[in-house]
UniProtKB/TrEMBL annotation:
<dbReference type="InterPro" id="IPR036412">
    <property type="entry name" value="HAD-like_sf"/>
</dbReference>
<dbReference type="InterPro" id="IPR029752">
    <property type="entry name" value="D-isomer_DH_CS1"/>
</dbReference>
<keyword id="KW-0520">NAD</keyword>
<comment type="function">
    <text>Catalyzes the reversible oxidation of 3-phospho-D-glycerate to 3-phosphonooxypyruvate, the first step of the phosphorylated L-serine biosynthesis pathway. Also catalyzes the reversible oxidation of 2-hydroxyglutarate to 2-oxoglutarate.</text>
</comment>
<protein>
    <recommendedName>
        <fullName>D-3-phosphoglycerate dehydrogenase</fullName>
        <ecNumber>1.1.1.399</ecNumber>
        <ecNumber>1.1.1.95</ecNumber>
    </recommendedName>
</protein>
<dbReference type="GO" id="GO:0004617">
    <property type="term" value="F:phosphoglycerate dehydrogenase activity"/>
</dbReference>
<feature type="domain" description="ACT">
    <location>
        <begin position="564"/>
        <end position="633"/>
    </location>
</feature>
<comment type="similarity">
    <text>Belongs to the D-isomer specific 2-hydroxyacid dehydrogenase family.</text>
</comment>
<dbReference type="InterPro" id="IPR045865">
    <property type="entry name" value="ACT-like_dom_sf"/>
</dbReference>
<dbReference type="InterPro" id="IPR029753">
    <property type="entry name" value="D-isomer_DH_CS"/>
</dbReference>
<dbReference type="Pfam" id="PF00389">
    <property type="entry name" value="2-Hacid_dh"/>
</dbReference>
<keyword id="KW-0028">Amino-acid biosynthesis</keyword>
<dbReference type="InterPro" id="IPR054480">
    <property type="entry name" value="AHAS_small-like_ACT"/>
</dbReference>
<dbReference type="InterPro" id="IPR006140">
    <property type="entry name" value="D-isomer_DH_NAD-bd"/>
</dbReference>
<comment type="pathway">
    <text>Amino-acid biosynthesis; L-serine biosynthesis; L-serine from 3-phospho-D-glycerate: step 1/3.</text>
</comment>
<dbReference type="InterPro" id="IPR050857">
    <property type="entry name" value="D-2-hydroxyacid_DH"/>
</dbReference>
<dbReference type="InterPro" id="IPR036291">
    <property type="entry name" value="NAD(P)-bd_dom_sf"/>
</dbReference>
Length: 633
């Protein structure tokens, strides 16, 4: 709150493209020319003139006169225009409407636009007509708009300067606007600061002159420590996206108002440590290792999004103990992996990896040697989770007999038969496919002993994680002819970018399909993932909802009732009682409280009523064993 001894400076707002997202005259032209064949052309001309005037390329008076001359508008178009503009108030101004109503006596709208449409729009924000300084239209006897009242100073070049001089405000003045004429007020010495307002349009020539750039009005309120609707300006939330997730992910984060930085490939540990400072949301895929060292350097990290299924590349427990919630996309690419696996089974059974290159070299090798139908064969699925169980259903439809092995008790689908041991599965299967997760214990899960237990001529597929198979042992089993073929999509070491060469003992072996970790790389899967993960993260940030987090206690919260306090603490006895003691001591009324814990942390959400003083927040931050605390307004 501003100190009463030093009241809020006078805030001079531009209207077009600042208070509203659009230019009033452009909208008026669209309405007036609606249905006419030349509408698009004339609106385009008006927009071009607006832009040239705003960037300082054309003097204001000429830009206005030329626009009005081609407008063709009538008094009856003003009412629909006002309705349209009311729906196009800038988002951050709309959400901080209470601020405008509270400080309306310190706020002026000074615009080269027209009073006829500005006054009714800003009135909803408590701004009275005497604080609106704008042009006025002239009309002919039939109500057609003929121009701007030339006696109004705002119709002239340098009009805003003349207007500010006439206003002679008795205190510091801050100007917020997107146009050159707004900056000129400061240049003329009539304002103490000029804020380039870029929420709707960003003009390089204007930004270059600004004391500060405001991507949203929240940023202004935050800088001046004024009351605001959000707890933190979204434009300050930095997102770092690695490994090229679908473009939709960046688009969604940007639409939320976050700053997004993208790095096409992966980063190694040291590179990531250098980049992670100040980042609030980190987006990765399977390659980037988010180690304890990385997390120690991550001073602002709130959440990590794994744009994939696997999360073994993230130090999940360390993230949890630092209050960083991790989300993944647990089934967005499941179907893609199933389809690839099925295709590979058929292709390996027909020894296509050998026949295809020969054909390209001009060799016609027509023979049935080593080729078999998959109908009636036994498929052993190791890991009967989302992928394994879906593969089970689709494989049975193709006539395969399915065996499965999983360390967890799983629902048996269709006619699939559960094996009690891995050995039981390996000994009976013509084809073995791995769909276990990448937990560290699964390193070399399939080694020479397990390979020896497989049937002679059997096929092995690994579309799970590289380290679960001992690759030299697999290469030996293929070379010796014990195995009839293999398909491998994942490797213990995978190149960071497409420019890095790829090495493996499996290169050049007969009947082996090698793919560059593309099991989930389909347009459908990548798009699904790029929508699913940002959605989870934004829900977490905006509401505290941790549903489907892979390392946080999962809470699905009801709609926020008032202020929401989000408290993450070490799971030791008595923390909830301490939180509630603080609230009771400050006479804060609890509207709802939700707690969930796991072995390491407690996650408690408390909805409280509107009235509380800032000391409560400080006292809650100081509760012993607090890991992270934030307030949602
Ligand atoms: N190639 C790709 O592009 C690609 C795409 C998606 C997923 N994946 C990987 O596929 C794997 C499976 O994905 P999912 O979505 O089905 O995972 P999931 O978590 O649903 O299923 C994994 C299953 O493996 C079981 N399991 C774990 N360790 C085991 C062991 N030692 N023995 C027997 N069972 C064990 C678990 O109990 C679980 O049922 C993961 O490793 C994932 O990272 C790869
Ligand atoms: O796209 C990736 O990097 C990983 C795909 C896959 O391994 C997953 O875990 O979902």
């Amino acid at each position: 709150m501003p100190d009463p001894a030093a009241p809020l400076p006078y805030l001079v707002f531009d209207f077009d493209s600042t208070f509203t997202q659009v230019e009033g005259l452009d909208e008026l032209a669209e309405i007036a020319l609606h249905g006419l064949p030349n509408q698009a052309e004339v609106v385009g001309q008006i927009r071009a003139l607006t832009d040239r005037g705003m960037s300082g390329e054309l003097n204001f008076q000429d830009s206005l006169a030329q626009r009005l001359a081609i407008l063709g508008a009538h008094r009856r178009h003003l009412e629909p225009l006002v309705e349209r503009l009311k729906g196009k108030v800038s988002e951050s101004i709309r959400r901080n409407g209470d601020f405008f109503r509270q400080f309306a006596d310190r706020i002026y709208v000074v615009s080269s636009g027209f009073r006829e449409f500005i006054e009714p729009v800003v009135a909803e924000f408590g701004i009275v007509p005497s604080h609106v300084l704008a042009n006025t239209f002239t009309f002919d006897a039939d109500g057609r708009i003929t121009g701007a009242d030339q006696t109004n100073v705002l119709s002239r070049n340098g009009g805003k300067i003349l207007q500010l001089k006439a206003l002679d405000l008795p205190g510091p003045v801050y100007v917020l606007g997107d146009g050159y004429t707004d900056y000129q007020i400061r240049e003329a010495g009539l304002a103490n600061r000029f804020y380039a307002y870029t929420e709707n349009v960003s003009r390089p020539s204007v930004v270059a002159q600004a004391d500060e750039v405001l991507p949203t009005f929240d940023e202004f309120l935050y800088q001046l420590k004024l009351p605001m609707t959000l707890s933190y300006p979204k434009n300050r939330i930095k997102v770092l996206l690695l490994e090229n997730p679908d473009a939709r992910a960046a688009e969604l984060f940007r639409a939320e108002g976050y700053q997004v930085e993208e790095v096409r490939g992966g980063l190694d540990e040291d590179e990531l440590i250098e980049r992670i400072e100040g980042v609030s949301i980190l987006g990765i895929r399977s390659k980037t290792q988010v180690t304890e060292r990385v997390l120690a350097a991550a001073n602002r990290l709130i959440s990590i999004g794994a744009f994939c299924i696997g999360t073994n590349q993230i130090a999940l427990d360390e993230a949890m103990s630092r209050g960083i919630a991790v989300f993944n996309a647990p089934f967005s690419n499941t179907r893609s992996v199933v389809e690839l696996t099925l295709g590979e089974i058929i292709v390996l059974a027909r020894r296509i990896p050998e026949k295809n290159p020969k054909m390209h070299q001009g060799t016609w090798d027509k023979s049935a040697s080593g080729a078999f139908e998959i109908r009636g064969k036994t498929l052993g699925i190791v890991g009967y989770g989302n992928i394994g169980s879906q593969l089970s259903v689709v494989s049975e439809a193709l006539g395969l007999k399915v065996l499965y092995y999983d360390i967890a008790e799983k629902l048996q689908l269709g006619n699939a038969v559960k094996c009690k041991t891995l050995e039981e599965l390996l000994k009976q299967s013509d084809i073995v496919t791995l769909h276990i997760d990448g937990r560290p214990d699964n390193k070399n899960f399939i080694g020479s002993k397990e390979l020896a237990q497989m049937k002679p001529g059997a096929l092995l597929l690994n579309n799970a994680r590289g380290h679960v198979v001992d690759v030299p042992a697999l290469a030996a089993a293929l070379r010796s002819g014990h195995l009839g073929g293999a398909a491998v999509d994942v490797f213990p070491y995978e190149p960071k970018t497409n420019d890095e060469p790829f090495e493996t003992e499996l290169r050049g072996l007969p009947n082996v399909i090698l793919t560059p970790h593309i099991g989930g790389s389909t347009a459908e899967a990548q798009r699904n993932i790029a929508e699913f993960v940002p959605e989870r993260i934004m829900q977490y940030i905006n509401t505290g909802n941790t549903q489907q987090s892979v390392n946080f206690p999962n809470i699905q919260l009801p709609l926020q009732q008032a202020h929401r306090l989000i408290h993450i603490h070490a799971n030791v006895p008595g923390v909830l009682a301490k939180i509630n003691n603080v609230l009771a001591a400050h006479h804060v009324n609890i509207l709802g409280q939700y707690l969930k814990t796991n072995e390491q942390i407690g996650y408690v959400i408390t909805d409280i009523n509107k009235e509380y003083d800032q000391d409560v927040i400080q006292a809650l931050r100081e509760v012993e064993h607090t890991i992270k605390f934030r307030v949602l307004y």
